Sequence to fold (251 residues):
Amino acid sequence: MLYIEVNDLIYEQSVDLGIDVSPLAIIYQEFIFNQPNLHFIFASQLMGEYAVEKYGLKADSFQTIINGAPEIDLSTQCPIEIIDDNKVKYIYAGTLNAGREIKQFIEIFVENKNTTLILIGTEGEWISDLKYDNIHYLGGFPEKEALIIASKCDVGIIPYNEEKLYYNICYPTKNSFYVAAGLPILCTPLQETMRVFNQYPQIAFFEKIVNWSTFLKTTTKEDILIAKESVKNVKDKFFWKTLLNKMNLNS
Fold:
């Protein structure tokens, strides 16, 4: 048996992100999902179910291991100083090129001065030019350091457009990254993310992006502290070492 790990569906991802992709991508996916001696490990249950419906993959030919995160190494030094104030500190970790609706969600935080937004990742140098008082772009960091930085914050955010197919069927790696750092998440109502987090009450807030401003205004530091306590009880379920132990490989 040959096992193939599927973290993304190239064609569907490219369509929704507006990335040019060869038309051969869909032909490749149709071909590979119909090979009888292959077994697939999807990083999302809904992605696997989509492949069954769209490409004819046999339902018993895949299993799901969601994207995990390493356990945080508390001996790692935090490479920068995180502003320590009474504001709720939200963090976005990921690629920050301007074409990914980044500026739109930044503006929501600009309007809510009771919050601080921290952004880490590559391609975000343009954010520093905006010069907003409560918006801080810190740059890109190795994963161990990024986890430490995130652990100094309060909430991890996932602002993906819930009207796009791909965002609904994938499981963003940053979900587990935030939880591993000890953070609850604020996320748009993405189907796969809700499927996973609804198993663990009180560690995620799901709101359409049009409601984020209201959420930021009405959610207190105390509300977030309660959610962070809930995260402590389940964070180990999102570590790679826990998730990979569930993998079933038949020789």
Q: What stands out?
A: The chain has twelve helices and nine strands. The first strand starts at residue 2 and ends at 6. The chain has a mean pLDDT of 92. Residues 221-234 form the longest helix (14 residues).
